[in-house]
Amino acid sequence: MTGASRIKEHMEVIGADGVHVGTVDRVESHRIKLTRQDSGEGSHKGHHHYVSLGLVADVEGDKVRLAANGDVAVTMEEER
Question: Rounded to whole angstroms, how far apart are CA atoms 43 and 58?
Fold first, then answer.
């Protein structure tokens, strides 16, 4: 079982396909808050995005590996 306590600031979040999804800002409740630098372009630029902790498959060294491919995880992000 992967505990949220193992996920630390500045870890890289990658999809199951190895694609960079973002960088951890911090863990909030049941989700990972990504840094603004990984917010994308257009209307998403400058906004924080979130990835559900339910998508985390493993924490390996300084990387958080997701159970979903990077492009799928990005569509599941929540913006606040």
Answer: 31
Parallel/antiparallel/unpaired status of strands 12-14 and 20-28: antiparallel
Measured between alpha carbons, how far is 17 from 6 in angstroms, rounded to an integer? 21
In this structure, of 40-44, 48-52, 58-62, 64-68, the range with the lowest mean pLDDT score is 40-44
- Is the pLDDT higher at 36 or at 22? 22
Residue 70 gets which letter from DSSP?
Answer: H
Average pLDDT, the chain: 82
Neighbours of 56 (CB within 10 A): 22
